[in-house]
Amino acid sequence: MDQAMQLQLASPTGNISGYISMVNNVPMLTAEEEKALAEDLQKNDNLDAARKLILPHLRFVVHVARGYSGYGLNQADLIQEGTIGLMKAVKRFDPTVGVRLVSFAVHWIRAEMHEFILRNWRIVKVATTKAQRKLFFNLRKNKKRLGWFSHEEVQTVANELGVKPETVLEMESRLSSRDMAFDGYGDEDEDSHYVAPSQYLEDMRQEPSQLIESADWSEHNTTRLAQALETLDDRSRDILQSRWLGEKKLTLHDLADKYGVSAERIRQLEKASLQKMRTVLMD
């Protein structure tokens, strides 16, 4: 197999049907060939042996990806994620255990696809813990067969998966929900009855009681600040007003020139004044 063909098989881009046709034409390995390649990879870290192990098993990745077609995700993306799982499996495969690579790799392939599905199926994650992930895939499979769950069916699923019935019902609710645009879908049809969630939120910025409360709080803070400034001597008060409260703020050097002291002395006076004001405001 030439290098260009190997690169095409490594990443399912373009025509997915053509990619599937190519992987199905890659010859399968015998048990002896597979073991020899795995030993070569394990002992010599031979990347060419790794490629020869991966390419014949891509058809199995495609087969597993088809089982997740009902999630509405791009088939090429699923295959690509499964291929990553296959590569991880090849790297960890031990030919001395006595099992075929395909049996060992299925866990890694499914694990990568599961992670991809959970990341991309919904905007909001539907499963975060290990138990929730297991429940997500098993519950979705059972719902295809049973439809809406009865109380007995919920109890049966909970017992089989080792979770509480409440957890099953919560996950069923998540599976039945759908993503909704917060600001709407841009539908300008006047006959549309859809109301975006953002339209339900109240704008409290112009609410009279809020405006009065905000004005009172601002006046209270201004009064407290003025009272705290009055506790300072004239020089300290001027330093703080010049540094923080004036429209044109002066630098330490500007104030040092004004009072004929060093900039470090102005900084010390400023720090002491701020500390004194903080104590007054906290009382």
Secondary structure tally: strands: 0
What share of the residues lie within helices? 55-70%
Q: Provide the number of structural domains.
A: 3
Alpha plus pi helix count: 14
Please write the string of helix (H) and strand (E) elements: HHHHHHHHHHHHHH
From the coordinates shown, what is the CATH architecture of the largest domain?
A: Up-down Bundle
Specify the overall morphology: elongated
Strand share of the residues? under 5%
The rounded distance between the terminal residues' Cα atoms is 82 Å
What about the largest sheet? none
Secondary structure category: mainly alpha
Question: Do you know the CATH topology of the largest domain?
Answer: Four Helix Bundle (Hemerythrin (Met), subunit A)
Q: What is the average of the pLDDT values?
A: 80
Q: Indicate the CATH class of the largest domain.
A: Mainly Alpha
What is Rg?
A: 34 Å
In brief:
By secondary structure, the protein is mainly α. The protein has helices spanning 3-10, 16-24, 31-44, 47-54, 58-66, 75-92, 101-120, 130-146, 151-161, 165-176, 208-230, 234-245, 252-259, 263-282.
